[in-house]
Amino acid sequence: MAAGVAGVRRLPLVVILGSTGTGKSKLAIEIGKKIGGEIISADSMQVYKGLDIITNKVTAEEQSQCPHHLIDFVSPLKEFSVVEFRNMALPLIDDIKSRDKIPIVVGGTNYYIESVLWDVLIDEEDRNVNLSSGEELDEPEGQGPSRKIKKRKLLESTGVLGSTTIYDEAVVSPGEASQRSKRSEERSKLQFFTDAEAGREDEHSCKTSLYDKLREVDPAMADKLHPSDSRKIARSLQIYEQHGKPHSTIIQEQQQKPGGNAFGGPQRYEDVCVFWLQCQRGILNERLDKRVSEMLERGLIEELLNFHREYNHVLAGKDTVAKYTEGIFQSIGFKEFHEFLVKQQGKDFDESSTSAEDKALLKIGLDNMKTVTRRYAKKQMTWVRNRFLARPVSSAPDVYGLDATNLTDWDNSVLQNALDILDRLIFGKRPAIEPLPRVIIQDDRHARHVCEICENRIILGEENWKKHLLSKAHKWHVKRKDRGKQHNATKDL
Protein backbone atom coordinates (compact mmCIF):
# COMPACT_ATOMS: atom_id res chain seq x y z
CA MET A 1 0.00 0.00 0.00
CA ALA A 2 1.37 3.40 -0.92
CA ALA A 3 2.54 5.41 2.04
CA GLY A 4 1.87 8.79 0.42
CA VAL A 5 3.87 11.98 0.74
CA ALA A 6 4.39 13.49 4.17
CA GLY A 7 2.10 16.50 4.59
CA VAL A 8 -0.18 15.37 1.72
CA ARG A 9 -1.93 12.30 3.08
CA ARG A 10 -4.68 12.74 5.62
CA LEU A 11 -4.35 11.05 8.99
CA PRO A 12 -7.73 9.58 9.88
CA LEU A 13 -8.60 8.07 13.22
CA VAL A 14 -9.26 4.39 12.53
CA VAL A 15 -11.76 2.59 14.75
CA ILE A 16 -12.37 -1.17 14.68
CA LEU A 17 -15.62 -2.46 16.17
CA GLY A 18 -16.97 -5.97 16.43
CA SER A 19 -18.10 -8.70 18.78
CA THR A 20 -15.58 -10.67 20.75
CA GLY A 21 -14.09 -13.40 18.57
CA THR A 22 -14.39 -11.59 15.22
CA GLY A 23 -10.67 -10.79 14.87
CA LYS A 24 -10.52 -7.10 15.83
CA SER A 25 -6.99 -7.26 17.26
CA LYS A 26 -5.71 -9.25 14.27
CA LEU A 27 -7.04 -6.66 11.83
CA ALA A 28 -5.67 -3.76 13.89
CA ILE A 29 -2.17 -5.22 13.89
CA GLU A 30 -2.21 -5.99 10.17
CA ILE A 31 -3.48 -2.50 9.31
CA GLY A 32 -0.98 -0.89 11.67
CA LYS A 33 1.94 -2.67 10.00
CA LYS A 34 0.74 -1.68 6.53
CA ILE A 35 -0.05 2.01 7.02
CA GLY A 36 2.24 3.01 9.86
CA GLY A 37 -0.27 3.01 12.69
CA GLU A 38 -0.24 2.66 16.45
CA ILE A 39 -2.92 0.77 18.37
CA ILE A 40 -4.93 2.17 21.28
CA SER A 41 -6.67 -0.64 23.14
CA ALA A 42 -10.26 0.20 24.12
CA ASP A 43 -10.94 -2.79 26.33
CA SER A 44 -12.00 -2.15 29.92
CA MET A 45 -10.55 -5.47 31.11
CA GLN A 46 -7.31 -5.51 29.11
CA VAL A 47 -6.13 -2.32 30.81
CA TYR A 48 -5.43 -4.47 33.87
CA LYS A 49 -1.99 -5.91 34.40
CA GLY A 50 -1.66 -9.68 34.28
CA LEU A 51 -4.55 -12.12 33.84
CA ASP A 52 -3.72 -12.45 30.15
CA ILE A 53 -5.82 -15.56 29.49
CA ILE A 54 -9.10 -14.48 31.04
CA THR A 55 -8.95 -11.07 29.34
CA ASN A 56 -7.75 -12.60 26.04
CA LYS A 57 -4.91 -10.12 25.56
CA VAL A 58 -2.77 -9.99 22.47
CA THR A 59 0.51 -11.78 23.07
CA ALA A 60 3.86 -10.06 23.59
CA GLU A 61 4.86 -11.23 20.11
CA GLU A 62 1.75 -9.63 18.59
CA GLN A 63 2.33 -6.41 20.51
CA SER A 64 5.88 -6.26 19.17
CA GLN A 65 4.58 -6.15 15.59
CA CYS A 66 2.85 -2.81 16.13
CA PRO A 67 3.04 -0.27 19.00
CA HIS A 68 0.23 -0.79 21.55
CA HIS A 69 -1.07 1.67 24.15
CA LEU A 70 -3.39 1.52 27.17
CA ILE A 71 -3.05 -2.22 27.63
CA ASP A 72 -1.71 -4.22 30.60
CA PHE A 73 -0.80 -1.28 32.83
CA VAL A 74 -3.34 -0.95 35.69
CA SER A 75 -3.31 -2.94 38.93
CA PRO A 76 -6.08 -5.57 38.99
CA LEU A 77 -7.07 -4.18 42.39
CA LYS A 78 -7.55 -0.63 41.15
CA GLU A 79 -10.68 0.86 39.63
CA PHE A 80 -10.18 2.32 36.14
CA SER A 81 -13.00 4.43 34.71
CA VAL A 82 -14.09 5.44 31.23
CA VAL A 83 -13.21 9.02 32.17
CA GLU A 84 -9.64 7.99 32.91
CA PHE A 85 -9.52 6.12 29.61
CA ARG A 86 -10.77 9.10 27.65
CA ASN A 87 -8.42 11.52 29.41
CA MET A 88 -5.47 9.33 28.41
CA ALA A 89 -6.68 8.40 24.92
CA LEU A 90 -7.44 11.88 23.56
CA PRO A 91 -3.94 13.38 24.02
CA LEU A 92 -2.47 10.07 22.91
CA ILE A 93 -4.34 10.30 19.59
CA ASP A 94 -2.97 13.81 19.07
CA ASP A 95 0.52 12.62 19.95
CA ILE A 96 0.38 9.75 17.42
CA LYS A 97 -0.86 12.07 14.67
CA SER A 98 1.85 14.63 15.47
CA ARG A 99 4.41 11.93 14.60
CA ASP A 100 2.73 11.36 11.20
CA LYS A 101 1.30 8.04 12.38
CA ILE A 102 -2.30 6.83 12.25
CA PRO A 103 -4.06 6.02 15.55
CA ILE A 104 -6.09 2.79 15.51
CA VAL A 105 -8.61 2.43 18.31
CA VAL A 106 -9.71 -1.18 18.77
CA GLY A 107 -11.56 -3.04 21.49
CA GLY A 108 -14.82 -4.51 22.63
CA THR A 109 -15.72 -1.82 25.17
CA ASN A 110 -17.88 0.31 22.93
CA TYR A 111 -18.62 3.02 25.49
CA TYR A 112 -14.84 3.60 25.75
CA ILE A 113 -14.82 4.19 21.99
CA GLU A 114 -17.86 6.47 22.22
CA SER A 115 -16.06 8.60 24.80
CA VAL A 116 -13.30 9.19 22.25
CA LEU A 117 -15.45 9.84 19.19
CA TRP A 118 -18.06 12.10 20.78
CA ASP A 119 -18.28 14.66 23.55
CA VAL A 120 -20.61 12.52 25.65
CA LEU A 121 -19.06 12.62 29.11
CA ILE A 122 -18.51 15.00 31.98
CA ASP A 123 -14.88 15.42 32.99
CA GLU A 124 -14.48 14.67 36.68
CA GLU A 125 -10.83 15.47 37.08
CA ASP A 126 -9.28 17.96 34.65
CA ARG A 127 -10.41 21.51 35.36
CA ASN A 128 -8.83 22.67 32.08
CA VAL A 129 -11.57 21.00 30.02
CA ASN A 130 -14.82 22.82 29.25
CA LEU A 131 -17.64 20.77 30.75
CA SER A 132 -20.04 21.12 27.85
CA SER A 133 -17.81 21.07 24.81
CA GLY A 134 -14.72 19.18 25.90
CA GLU A 135 -12.55 21.93 24.37
CA GLU A 136 -9.29 22.59 26.14
CA LEU A 137 -8.92 25.96 27.84
CA ASP A 138 -5.76 27.90 28.55
CA GLU A 139 -3.51 25.60 30.54
CA PRO A 140 -1.09 26.36 33.35
CA GLU A 141 2.45 25.22 32.70
CA GLY A 142 2.82 21.48 33.05
CA GLN A 143 -0.87 20.75 32.48
CA GLY A 144 -2.96 19.45 29.58
CA PRO A 145 -2.13 16.82 26.93
CA SER A 146 1.63 16.83 27.43
CA ARG A 147 1.18 16.18 31.14
CA LYS A 148 -1.34 13.40 30.45
CA ILE A 149 0.98 11.69 27.97
CA LYS A 150 3.79 11.75 30.53
CA LYS A 151 1.40 10.34 33.14
CA ARG A 152 0.30 7.55 30.80
CA LYS A 153 3.89 6.62 29.94
CA LEU A 154 4.74 6.57 33.64
CA LEU A 155 1.79 4.30 34.37
CA GLU A 156 2.69 1.98 31.50
CA SER A 157 6.33 1.80 32.54
CA THR A 158 5.63 1.19 36.23
CA GLY A 159 2.47 -0.85 35.94
CA VAL A 160 0.84 1.78 38.20
CA LEU A 161 2.19 0.14 41.29
CA GLY A 162 5.86 0.92 41.59
CA SER A 163 6.58 -2.38 43.32
CA THR A 164 7.79 -5.81 42.35
CA THR A 165 4.36 -7.41 42.61
CA ILE A 166 1.38 -6.41 40.53
CA TYR A 167 -0.89 -6.85 43.53
CA ASP A 168 0.34 -3.95 45.62
CA GLU A 169 -1.06 -3.73 49.12
CA ALA A 170 -1.04 0.07 48.88
CA VAL A 171 -3.65 0.03 46.16
CA VAL A 172 -7.23 0.58 47.26
CA SER A 173 -9.08 -2.60 46.40
CA PRO A 174 -12.62 -2.92 44.98
CA GLY A 175 -15.38 -1.79 47.26
CA GLU A 176 -13.06 -0.94 50.14
CA ALA A 177 -14.53 2.46 50.86
CA SER A 178 -18.10 1.19 51.04
CA GLN A 179 -17.61 -2.30 52.44
CA ARG A 180 -15.86 -1.63 55.77
CA SER A 181 -16.98 -4.15 58.37
CA LYS A 182 -15.63 -6.07 61.34
CA ARG A 183 -12.70 -8.30 60.42
CA SER A 184 -13.13 -11.99 61.05
CA GLU A 185 -10.88 -15.01 60.80
CA GLU A 186 -13.19 -16.69 58.32
CA ARG A 187 -13.24 -13.66 56.00
CA SER A 188 -9.47 -13.32 56.00
CA LYS A 189 -9.14 -16.95 54.91
CA LEU A 190 -11.58 -16.69 52.06
CA GLN A 191 -11.87 -12.95 51.42
CA PHE A 192 -12.62 -13.03 47.72
CA PHE A 193 -15.46 -15.47 47.90
CA THR A 194 -17.30 -13.89 50.81
CA ASP A 195 -20.66 -12.46 49.84
CA ALA A 196 -21.32 -10.87 53.18
CA GLU A 197 -24.86 -10.82 54.46
CA ALA A 198 -23.91 -8.31 57.13
CA GLY A 199 -24.59 -4.78 56.10
CA ARG A 200 -27.07 -5.60 53.33
CA GLU A 201 -29.93 -3.80 55.07
CA ASP A 202 -27.71 -0.75 55.55
CA GLU A 203 -26.71 -0.93 51.89
CA HIS A 204 -30.37 -1.00 50.83
CA SER A 205 -31.12 1.95 53.09
CA CYS A 206 -28.16 3.85 51.64
CA LYS A 207 -29.35 3.21 48.06
CA THR A 208 -32.82 4.49 48.91
CA SER A 209 -31.40 7.60 50.56
CA LEU A 210 -29.16 8.36 47.56
CA TYR A 211 -32.04 7.93 45.14
CA ASP A 212 -34.28 10.23 47.19
CA LYS A 213 -31.52 12.84 47.18
CA LEU A 214 -31.14 12.56 43.40
CA ARG A 215 -34.89 12.91 42.90
CA GLU A 216 -34.75 16.08 44.98
CA VAL A 217 -31.92 17.78 43.03
CA ASP A 218 -32.34 16.20 39.58
CA PRO A 219 -35.77 14.60 39.04
CA ALA A 220 -35.20 14.30 35.29
CA MET A 221 -32.13 12.09 35.82
CA ALA A 222 -33.84 10.17 38.63
CA ASP A 223 -36.61 9.19 36.21
CA LYS A 224 -34.00 7.65 33.90
CA LEU A 225 -32.27 5.58 36.57
CA HIS A 226 -33.36 2.56 38.53
CA PRO A 227 -33.42 3.14 42.32
CA SER A 228 -31.02 0.19 42.76
CA ASP A 229 -28.44 1.53 40.29
CA SER A 230 -26.32 3.00 43.07
CA ARG A 231 -23.26 3.58 40.90
CA LYS A 232 -25.04 5.81 38.37
CA ILE A 233 -27.03 7.54 41.10
CA ALA A 234 -23.84 8.37 43.00
CA ARG A 235 -22.23 9.54 39.75
CA SER A 236 -25.09 11.98 39.04
CA LEU A 237 -25.01 13.29 42.61
CA GLN A 238 -21.24 13.77 42.37
CA ILE A 239 -21.66 15.80 39.18
CA TYR A 240 -24.31 17.94 40.87
CA GLU A 241 -22.06 18.57 43.87
CA GLN A 242 -19.04 19.37 41.72
CA HIS A 243 -20.68 21.67 39.21
CA GLY A 244 -23.66 23.13 41.00
CA LYS A 245 -26.23 22.09 38.43
CA PRO A 246 -28.07 18.87 37.60
CA HIS A 247 -26.42 16.15 35.55
CA SER A 248 -29.43 16.16 33.19
CA THR A 249 -28.97 19.88 32.54
CA ILE A 250 -25.31 19.43 31.58
CA ILE A 251 -26.22 16.58 29.22
CA GLN A 252 -28.91 18.76 27.65
CA GLU A 253 -26.35 21.52 27.13
CA GLN A 254 -24.05 19.06 25.36
CA GLN A 255 -26.86 17.85 23.12
CA GLN A 256 -27.85 21.38 22.14
CA LYS A 257 -24.38 22.37 20.95
CA PRO A 258 -23.75 22.50 17.17
CA GLY A 259 -23.39 18.90 16.01
CA GLY A 260 -25.03 17.52 19.14
CA ASN A 261 -28.09 15.30 19.19
CA ALA A 262 -30.09 12.99 21.44
CA PHE A 263 -27.05 10.71 21.81
CA GLY A 264 -24.83 13.43 23.24
CA GLY A 265 -22.42 16.12 22.17
CA PRO A 266 -20.73 16.71 18.82
CA GLN A 267 -18.21 14.48 17.06
CA ARG A 268 -14.62 15.21 18.11
CA TYR A 269 -12.75 14.31 14.92
CA GLU A 270 -13.49 15.14 11.30
CA ASP A 271 -11.55 12.30 9.66
CA VAL A 272 -12.69 8.99 11.13
CA CYS A 273 -12.90 5.57 9.50
CA VAL A 274 -14.93 2.95 11.36
CA PHE A 275 -14.76 -0.76 10.49
CA TRP A 276 -17.35 -3.16 11.87
CA LEU A 277 -16.23 -6.79 11.77
CA GLN A 278 -19.31 -8.95 11.31
CA CYS A 279 -19.84 -12.70 11.49
CA GLN A 280 -22.82 -15.00 11.05
CA ARG A 281 -24.27 -15.65 14.48
CA GLY A 282 -24.14 -19.45 14.43
CA ILE A 283 -20.55 -19.57 13.22
CA LEU A 284 -19.50 -16.93 15.75
CA ASN A 285 -21.06 -18.92 18.60
CA GLU A 286 -19.12 -22.03 17.54
CA ARG A 287 -15.95 -19.97 17.35
CA LEU A 288 -16.52 -18.52 20.83
CA ASP A 289 -17.22 -21.94 22.38
CA LYS A 290 -13.98 -23.25 20.90
CA ARG A 291 -12.05 -20.25 22.19
CA VAL A 292 -13.31 -20.79 25.74
CA SER A 293 -12.18 -24.43 25.60
CA GLU A 294 -8.78 -23.29 24.33
CA MET A 295 -8.49 -20.82 27.20
CA LEU A 296 -9.05 -23.69 29.61
CA GLU A 297 -6.27 -25.67 27.92
CA ARG A 298 -3.92 -22.66 28.11
CA GLY A 299 -4.29 -22.55 31.90
CA LEU A 300 -7.34 -20.41 32.67
CA ILE A 301 -8.07 -22.18 35.98
CA GLU A 302 -4.46 -21.93 37.15
CA GLU A 303 -4.46 -18.22 36.31
CA LEU A 304 -7.65 -17.60 38.30
CA LEU A 305 -6.46 -19.64 41.28
CA ASN A 306 -3.09 -17.88 41.36
CA PHE A 307 -4.79 -14.52 41.22
CA HIS A 308 -7.19 -15.42 44.03
CA ARG A 309 -4.32 -16.60 46.22
CA GLU A 310 -2.44 -13.37 45.66
CA TYR A 311 -5.60 -11.36 46.15
CA ASN A 312 -6.39 -13.02 49.48
CA HIS A 313 -2.82 -12.42 50.62
CA VAL A 314 -3.14 -8.72 49.84
CA LEU A 315 -6.47 -8.46 51.64
CA ALA A 316 -5.38 -10.40 54.71
CA GLY A 317 -4.98 -7.13 56.58
CA LYS A 318 -7.94 -5.32 55.02
CA ASP A 319 -11.64 -5.20 55.81
CA THR A 320 -12.83 -5.61 52.24
CA VAL A 321 -15.33 -7.64 50.28
CA ALA A 322 -14.58 -7.93 46.56
CA LYS A 323 -17.48 -7.62 44.16
CA TYR A 324 -18.07 -9.10 40.71
CA THR A 325 -19.31 -5.70 39.52
CA GLU A 326 -16.03 -3.83 39.93
CA GLY A 327 -12.73 -3.69 38.12
CA ILE A 328 -11.12 -6.84 36.78
CA PHE A 329 -13.68 -8.99 38.62
CA GLN A 330 -16.23 -8.11 35.94
CA SER A 331 -14.28 -10.23 33.44
CA ILE A 332 -16.20 -13.17 32.09
CA GLY A 333 -14.83 -16.19 33.95
CA PHE A 334 -14.62 -15.00 37.55
CA LYS A 335 -18.24 -15.39 38.53
CA GLU A 336 -18.86 -18.33 36.19
CA PHE A 337 -16.24 -20.54 37.92
CA HIS A 338 -17.09 -19.31 41.41
CA GLU A 339 -18.31 -22.60 42.91
CA PHE A 340 -15.44 -24.60 41.45
CA LEU A 341 -12.80 -22.11 42.58
CA VAL A 342 -14.16 -22.05 46.12
CA LYS A 343 -13.53 -25.78 46.42
CA GLN A 344 -10.05 -25.48 44.91
CA GLN A 345 -8.77 -22.92 47.43
CA GLY A 346 -5.45 -24.06 48.88
CA LYS A 347 -5.03 -26.85 46.31
CA ASP A 348 -2.82 -27.26 43.26
CA PHE A 349 -5.11 -27.77 40.30
CA ASP A 350 -4.64 -31.06 38.44
CA GLU A 351 -7.55 -32.02 36.22
CA SER A 352 -6.43 -35.65 36.02
CA SER A 353 -6.79 -36.11 39.78
CA THR A 354 -9.84 -33.89 40.24
CA SER A 355 -12.82 -35.59 41.88
CA ALA A 356 -15.98 -36.34 39.94
CA GLU A 357 -17.84 -33.69 41.93
CA ASP A 358 -15.24 -31.05 41.12
CA LYS A 359 -15.21 -32.05 37.46
CA ALA A 360 -18.96 -31.53 37.38
CA LEU A 361 -18.51 -28.05 38.87
CA LEU A 362 -15.76 -27.34 36.33
CA LYS A 363 -18.06 -28.32 33.47
CA ILE A 364 -20.83 -26.09 34.84
CA GLY A 365 -18.37 -23.20 34.97
CA LEU A 366 -17.19 -23.88 31.44
CA ASP A 367 -20.75 -24.06 30.10
CA ASN A 368 -21.70 -20.88 31.95
CA MET A 369 -18.70 -19.06 30.54
CA LYS A 370 -19.62 -20.09 27.00
CA THR A 371 -23.19 -18.94 27.50
CA VAL A 372 -22.19 -15.57 28.94
CA THR A 373 -19.59 -15.03 26.21
CA ARG A 374 -22.17 -15.66 23.49
CA ARG A 375 -24.60 -13.31 25.23
CA TYR A 376 -21.91 -10.64 25.48
CA ALA A 377 -21.15 -10.95 21.77
CA LYS A 378 -24.81 -10.38 20.96
CA LYS A 379 -24.88 -7.34 23.22
CA GLN A 380 -21.86 -5.88 21.41
CA MET A 381 -23.63 -6.28 18.04
CA THR A 382 -26.75 -4.59 19.37
CA TRP A 383 -24.69 -1.71 20.75
CA VAL A 384 -23.13 -0.99 17.35
CA ARG A 385 -26.53 -0.87 15.68
CA ASN A 386 -28.18 1.20 18.41
CA ARG A 387 -25.34 3.59 19.21
CA PHE A 388 -23.27 3.93 16.03
CA LEU A 389 -25.58 3.28 13.10
CA ALA A 390 -28.54 5.03 14.71
CA ARG A 391 -26.79 8.40 14.95
CA PRO A 392 -27.59 11.11 12.41
CA VAL A 393 -25.28 11.16 9.37
CA SER A 394 -24.27 14.73 10.15
CA SER A 395 -22.83 13.79 13.54
CA ALA A 396 -21.35 10.34 13.00
CA PRO A 397 -18.59 8.84 10.84
CA ASP A 398 -19.29 6.30 8.14
CA VAL A 399 -19.22 2.67 9.28
CA TYR A 400 -17.87 0.06 6.84
CA GLY A 401 -18.92 -3.55 7.29
CA LEU A 402 -16.33 -6.31 6.87
CA ASP A 403 -17.44 -9.94 6.71
CA ALA A 404 -15.28 -12.04 9.05
CA THR A 405 -17.42 -15.19 8.80
CA ASN A 406 -14.99 -17.15 6.63
CA LEU A 407 -11.55 -16.97 8.22
CA THR A 408 -9.95 -18.86 5.32
CA ASP A 409 -10.85 -15.89 3.08
CA TRP A 410 -9.68 -13.31 5.62
CA ASP A 411 -7.10 -11.62 3.37
CA ASN A 412 -9.66 -10.90 0.65
CA SER A 413 -12.91 -10.35 2.54
CA VAL A 414 -11.47 -8.44 5.50
CA LEU A 415 -7.89 -7.21 5.22
CA GLN A 416 -7.77 -6.16 1.57
CA ASN A 417 -11.16 -4.46 1.73
CA ALA A 418 -10.08 -2.53 4.82
CA LEU A 419 -6.80 -1.45 3.21
CA ASP A 420 -8.56 -0.38 0.00
CA ILE A 421 -11.04 1.75 1.95
CA LEU A 422 -8.29 3.34 4.04
CA ASP A 423 -6.03 3.97 1.05
CA ARG A 424 -8.74 6.03 -0.65
CA LEU A 425 -9.73 7.90 2.51
CA ILE A 426 -6.13 8.77 3.34
CA PHE A 427 -5.73 10.47 -0.03
CA GLY A 428 -9.14 12.16 -0.01
CA LYS A 429 -10.98 9.78 -2.35
CA ARG A 430 -14.35 8.11 -1.95
CA PRO A 431 -14.07 4.35 -1.22
CA ALA A 432 -15.49 1.96 -3.81
CA ILE A 433 -17.24 0.08 -0.98
CA GLU A 434 -20.30 1.89 0.37
CA PRO A 435 -20.69 2.42 4.12
CA LEU A 436 -23.46 0.66 6.00
CA PRO A 437 -26.87 2.39 5.90
CA ARG A 438 -28.17 4.19 8.97
CA VAL A 439 -30.90 2.63 11.05
CA ILE A 440 -33.77 4.25 12.91
CA ILE A 441 -33.99 3.11 16.52
CA GLN A 442 -36.70 4.18 18.94
CA ASP A 443 -34.87 4.90 22.17
CA ASP A 444 -37.19 3.68 24.90
CA ARG A 445 -34.50 2.46 27.30
CA HIS A 446 -35.60 4.94 29.96
CA ALA A 447 -39.34 4.37 29.68
CA ARG A 448 -40.46 3.95 33.27
CA HIS A 449 -42.97 1.33 34.42
CA VAL A 450 -44.14 0.47 37.92
CA CYS A 451 -45.57 -3.02 38.42
CA GLU A 452 -48.07 -2.71 41.25
CA ILE A 453 -48.73 -6.46 41.18
CA CYS A 454 -45.03 -7.12 41.96
CA GLU A 455 -45.04 -4.82 44.98
CA ASN A 456 -44.41 -1.62 43.01
CA ARG A 457 -41.31 -2.94 41.33
CA ILE A 458 -39.75 -0.38 38.96
CA ILE A 459 -38.88 -1.51 35.42
CA LEU A 460 -36.98 0.70 32.96
CA GLY A 461 -37.28 0.22 29.21
CA GLU A 462 -40.07 -1.12 27.03
CA GLU A 463 -38.16 -4.30 26.21
CA ASN A 464 -37.47 -4.99 29.87
CA TRP A 465 -41.12 -4.31 30.66
CA LYS A 466 -42.27 -6.86 28.10
CA LYS A 467 -39.84 -9.41 29.51
CA HIS A 468 -41.03 -8.71 33.04
CA LEU A 469 -44.67 -9.32 32.13
CA LEU A 470 -43.68 -12.75 30.76
CA SER A 471 -41.37 -13.62 33.66
CA LYS A 472 -42.05 -16.39 36.18
CA ALA A 473 -41.78 -13.92 39.06
CA HIS A 474 -44.51 -11.67 37.64
CA LYS A 475 -46.79 -14.61 36.83
CA TRP A 476 -46.30 -15.91 40.38
CA HIS A 477 -47.40 -12.55 41.82
CA VAL A 478 -50.40 -12.50 39.46
CA LYS A 479 -51.47 -15.95 40.65
CA ARG A 480 -50.98 -14.97 44.28
CA LYS A 481 -53.12 -11.88 43.80
CA ASP A 482 -55.83 -13.93 42.06
CA ARG A 483 -55.80 -16.43 44.93
CA GLY A 484 -56.16 -13.54 47.35
CA LYS A 485 -59.17 -12.22 45.47
CA GLN A 486 -60.77 -15.66 45.42
CA HIS A 487 -60.15 -16.06 49.15
CA ASN A 488 -61.74 -12.68 49.94
CA ALA A 489 -64.70 -13.48 47.69
CA THR A 490 -65.24 -16.75 49.55
CA LYS A 491 -65.15 -14.95 52.91
CA ASP A 492 -67.79 -12.48 51.75
CA LEU A 493 -70.25 -15.27 50.88
What's the gist of this structure?
Helix content is 47%, strand content 8%. With 493 residues, it is of the alpha/beta class. A six-stranded parallel beta sheet has the order 3-2-4-1-5-6, sandwiched between helices. The protein has a two-stranded antiparallel sheet with strand order 7-8.
List the helices and strands and how they pair.
Layout lengths: L12 E6 L5 H12 L1 E5 L18 H6 L2 E2 L12 H17 L3 E5 L3 H8 L27 H14 L26 H5 L10 H18 L1 H6 L5 H14 L3 H9 L16 E7 L2 H18 L1 H16 L22 H7 L11 H33 L10 E5 L6 H17 L21 E4 L5 E4 L1 H9 L1 H21 L1
Parallel strand pairs: 1-4, 1-5, 2-3, 2-4, 5-6
Antiparallel strand pairs: 7-8
- Percent of residues in beta strands? 5-15%
Please give the alpha-carbon distance between the first and last residues. 88 Å
Q: Which runs of at least 5 residues are low in confidence (pLDDT < 50)?
A: 1-7, 124-201
Radius of gyration: 25 Å
Cα shape? globular
SSE-based structural type: alpha/beta
Largest sheet: 6 strands, parallel
Average pLDDT metric:
78
**Succession of helices and strands:** EHEHEHEHHHHHHHEHHHHEHEEHH
The count of strands amounts to: 8
Number of helices: 17
State the strand order across the main sheet: 3-2-4-1-5-6
Helix content: 40-55%
